[in-house]
Specification:
7 strands; Aminopeptidase; single chain; 5 helices; seven-stranded mixed sheet; alpha+beta; binds coenzyme A; about 180 residues
Amino acid sequence: MSFTLRPAAMADMAEIMRLERAGFAEAIQETEEAFAERLSSAPEGCWVLAGEAKRLYGYLCAEFWPLEQGFNSARFARNHAAAEAHVPDGEEVYVSSMVVDPATRGTGWGHRLFRDALVEMFARHPRLRSTILIVNPEWDAARRIYRAEGFAEIGEIEGYFASGSGQRLPAIVMRRN
Ligand SMILES: CC(C)(COP(=O)(O)OP(=O)(O)OC[C@H]1O[C@@H](n2cnc3c(N)ncnc32)[C@H](O)[C@@H]1OP(=O)(O)O)[C@@H](O)C(=O)NCCC(=O)NCCS
């Protein structure tokens, strides 16, 4: 099956929320309000993999940030407002979230979504020159994609993620210049 990468729209919300619930444990799922805020404040960073009849097979959300030396862990706070963080002429993309439909995983679409959405953003916004993200140490598929795309680990944010065992896991910060 083949899907089309395109900018996300408010009309995609029900499908985005279906993917969100399929992608993450309940404790870390983001709300419809958070996605609506991203779509209205940072539309340049919101992308979907669209199939037929309004069905979506993946989404990727990003913001543009000013580029800074090292990183400031406070910037990655969960539920931060895209309206405050996103700078349309920023030089660094922050990829905040990505999900592929479980029925489609393991067939290369996650890698394509990640690679092609970044290619589109960099082509449309020539000021961009860097990409940053955080990842849970247990999210193996995502980590494989980021490594394959040339991202390097530049640090950790202690205790960022809750784990199933009740312990907290760090967020690994990765960047590609
Ligand atoms: C991360 C995610 C988007 C990847 O989508 P996908 O379509 O499965 O990705 P791909 O098919 O392109 O596979 C990417 C790599 O991960 C590997 N992989 C896929 N599923 C895996 C799994 N369950 N465990 C370990 N590796 C896995 C693939 O073999 C591939 O590696 P390779 O290129 O070295 O062979 C998808 O797993 C997902 O939605 N996960 C839940 C949400 C999430 O973790 N999001 C990312 C952080 S925000």
